[in-house]
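Reopening this ticket.

The earlier resolution said the output was attached, but the attachment link was broken on my side. Pasting everything inline this time so it's all in one place.
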Amino acid sequence: ARAASTLGNIGVAHYALGDYAKALLAYERALAAKDALGDKAGAADTLGNMGAVYSALGDSAKALATFERVREVMRALGDEAAWALVNIGVVYFSLGDYAKALATYEHAMGALQATGDKAGVANTLGNIGNVYNALGDYAKALATYERALVALNEAGDKAGVATTLGNIGHIYASLGDHARALATYERARTLAEALGDKAGAALTLGNIGNVYWSLGDYPRALTTFERALAEKKSLGDRAGAATTLGALGNVYWSLGDYAKALATYELALATVEALGDARGAATALINIANALDSLGENAKGIKTLERAVRSAEKLGANGLLAPALGSLARMRLRSGDAGRAISDAHRAVLLLKTLVGGLGEVQGAIAREHHMSLFAVGLAAAATVDDAPEAVFFLESGRAGTLLESLDAREALRWAGLPEELRLAEIKARAGEARALAAYTKSLDGGDLAATRARGEELKAAQASVEEVVERIQRDAKKEARPWYPVATPIEHIQRFLVPGDALVLYGLAKEAAAHALVLTREDARIVELGTSAAIATACEALDVRDLDTDPAAALDRLRDLLITPLALPKEMTRLLVSPEGPLSYVPFSALLPGMDVAYEPSGTTYGVLLEDREKRGIDVLALGDPDYATPADATALALYAPTRGARLARLPATRVEATAVGDVTRFGKDASEAGLRDALGKKKKRWHAVHFACHGLVNPERPMQSWLALTPDAGDDGFLTMLEVLRMEIPSDLVVLSACETGKGRIFGGEGLVGLTRAFMFAGSPRVICSLWKVDDEATKALMVKFYELWNPKDGTPGLPTAQALRRAQDFIRSQPKWKHPYYWAAWALWGLPG
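Inline output:
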């Protein structure tokens, strides 16, 4: 009996060292001994260990048969053997039978919970997350992994923590969040190496190489993959080696060595097919097809991709199916088959419901950007055959999806119950941010540059932790609220949103390709080619209206020639609704179309959602101005967002005059604080006609959730009203005016659009937001705002002008003043949302 036990331990040691052949020999000897002793429970344990070796070697058939034997033995002994069920689920998963894997895991979860096996529950949660990941349901996968991570940490299971961190990193990579993926993988690898887990370290090393490849760092990716391949081969990990071969092929393909890439992909395919790895085979087929196409063998590439699509469909693996269909659409379009290209791209876009649905605001935008090529190829195919309805589908599907998902369920999201675990996690993260901020501010006074840099990195990490928790909260709220996943509104419905005199222009700028615009009126729809996206981007960069010593007329004329003239807008048109893409979000269209009312729209579908609020009418204008920026708390708060030693926000005395002129209810000085805002919003519990902020503002293009309006700091608040905070507020109003610098900026995501303060206030309850595209002049802004409110909200009780018209007339007034005729003074102001 002691010999049998020792043999089993020897097998465990060899397995941990990655020497699977020796482990199997030791387990077979141990099994023979236990069978001879009649030790059925011990034999079942040993069989389970043997099954694990077969799984590691990629022999799924033997692994499944072995674990089934374990179940038979244990059930005869009256034991449900949940751990064997989990392993059977793992085998089903490796075979690509995700439905059986999920059902088996859930069966095991019931048994594990019944026996109070917390460690087993934690590991099984991780396995369930793997199924969601394979199915491409990334929001569910991430939420499940995060639950598993908490449970594994509580159980002290460091190996499980390392594995789960690697899985979370894979989700981030699949969503296109490469920086976070790399950081998470590095944590997983460090932990695996500390535990002596060679297999886990090798797996994570390969994942790190994938991030380098995605970032375009091909030399580093190549070195990393070669190391990972050597490590996996030494461990006898055939499946892992095949995966890494495929990754090496990707590097060769990216470097233009298509023949070498093809040979490498084919070697990977042969290995995974021999192992029965259906998912690996589908991945290899996709890669082979791309290599064939790059070598000029378009027809072979298409046939190979069709095989890959069938395999991915059979697996239900949307994460593979969507890019496979996208590649197929691109190849068909190049072969001249635009009709089938449209069909393939259309199917791929519909699959994004599981791939990017249910995520947080920024996370969802990153994920949609990761798939932006689907929208681009679909639009290009639709333009080839002048198919306006399909062009609308791809343009509308490729913007504002995350915003629409939130707008549709904003009431449910706002009141969704916050689980205690997430509430405590947010408190902990914000406390960590406060500590890091205090340490950073203290280091500024110490004069030690190295210490300041270190504290600055700690502060960034603390801010990232806060955003991560907030994303989890947003995902959890969407899960509870079950919001409608946005589907592009059909062209005929969007046209019904328009009134005579309106034109909606949806711009599409595909990288390294032709730019297009779709012009919609109530009666007509036209696709217009605008030239190259690169030329438009160059023209946008050349426009700088902030330089008062330079006349921007030539740059504006160039943009007008590229963006407006080709549209051939009807003469009877009086109002332009612009749905921009990329750098066009920062183009002052009011300067391109003098005399025209202009409103920016996240998308035509969003416009329809916002129109549901058009009949609502609030009363009174709430105006905040002249915040008190002289308090000591300001230095600490400012360091969080604009870390400059000794920095102070300059007072804006003209904003008091501005807010007094436009507001019915006002908050100034110490009352122009976050608490003052909450008090004003909460006292009357009503819908406002407008909420007006006259203050400093700053946009963080890297972390848009940390963009802010600077109010008065006090003991309870730092004074910086961030996008994060606005998203969690209720500000019911007909209009929000952000009379501050650069409030119309943010982070532009391909496939989603502009993420910044404007969409936060739309979510908070306003269908119209006026904001600025650059740093504005204090006096000119005061004059423009006073004139706007005179036209939009007359004090004598007469009806005001529609919002877009009032803004255009106010801009015309400023432009008519000799000292303010330069576009810098008046063209910065943009209206997002409803023009009426």
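Reporter confirms the inline version is readable. The first helix runs from residue 2 to 16. Residues 57 and 754 are 47 Å apart (CA to CA).
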